[in-house]
Amino acid sequence: MLGSENMKLPPGFYFSPTDEELVLHFLYSKASNLPYHPNIIPHLHLSHIDPWELYGKALSSGNEHYLFTEVKESRSNENGYWKEIGATKAIVSAANNILGMKKYLVFTLREGTQTNWIMEEYHISSSTSPINLEESWSKWVLCKVYEKKMSQMSQQVCYSDEDVDSGTEVSWLDEVFMSLDDDLDETSQPN
Questions:
Q1: What is the pLDDT of residues 120-170, one digit of tens each?
Q2: Which residues form the NAC domain (predicted)?
Q3: What are phi and psi of 144, to 5 degrees?
Q4: 51, 105 in Cβ contact below 8 A?
Q5: 108-127: buried (b, 16+ CB within 10 Å) or exposed (e) per residue?
Q6: What would the pLDDT profile of 5-45 be if each residue is shown by its tens digit?
């Protein structure tokens, strides 16, 4: 799903590369101005877009959105900013070479509330690059952005029968289904 480039992907196409593939096949090629196959990941400015606006603009595959941005570009906009969380992780090849680094960031609203939007930011490891280094190596990063679902965040929560009867609100969808049950009960009763 690409917006401005209108790239038509074949039916059933699912983009699910490993960290190593993202660095070797896409980020190295972009940083060295080599053609990468296929040219499907767009360059976007994170200072102009909120993470929930990535649908149709970034390469989207399932809940994941892929884009290139410049290292020096601002990671903030009028609604919030990308805040680094956790440690930087090395991306290691099968031959045990360090290919790059991955940073984790969370989109934080201006008032300081963290959202469920996570970004994995891929950087080339300049010290062990398999290609001759140029200044452009540090110019680009590849970003994978996704929304962490509530079920992923609260997998350890257990519900008992007491929780169900404790006055919790019913969702609008449950209300629709319950009203359908009421309608069925009314039609099944003899006049």
A1: 999 997 654 444 444 445 689 999 999 998 655 544 333 333 333 434 444
A2: 9-148
A3: -115, 120
A4: no
A5: beeeeeebebbbbbbbbbee
A6: 445 566 777 788 999 999 988 898 888 877 666 678 999 99
CB contact at 8 A, 41 and 59: yes
The set of residues, in sequence order, having a beta carbon less than 8 Å from that of 121 and lying 6+ positions away, is 102, 103, 104, 105, 141, 142, 143
The C-alpha atoms of residue 54 and residue 59 are separated, in whole angstroms, by 8
Cα–Cα distance for residue pair 156/65, rounded to 1 Å: 27
* Whole-number Å distance between alpha carbons of 172 and 48: 34
Residue length, the chain? Answer: 191
82 φ/ψ angles, rounded to the nearest 5 degrees: -90, 120
> What would the two tokens of residue 49 be?
């877009």
163 SS3 class? helix
Q: What is the rounded CA–CA span in Å between residue 109 and residue 80?
A: 4
Q: Which helix (H) or strand (E) holds 84?
A: strand 80-92
CATH class, domain 19-153, is: mainly beta
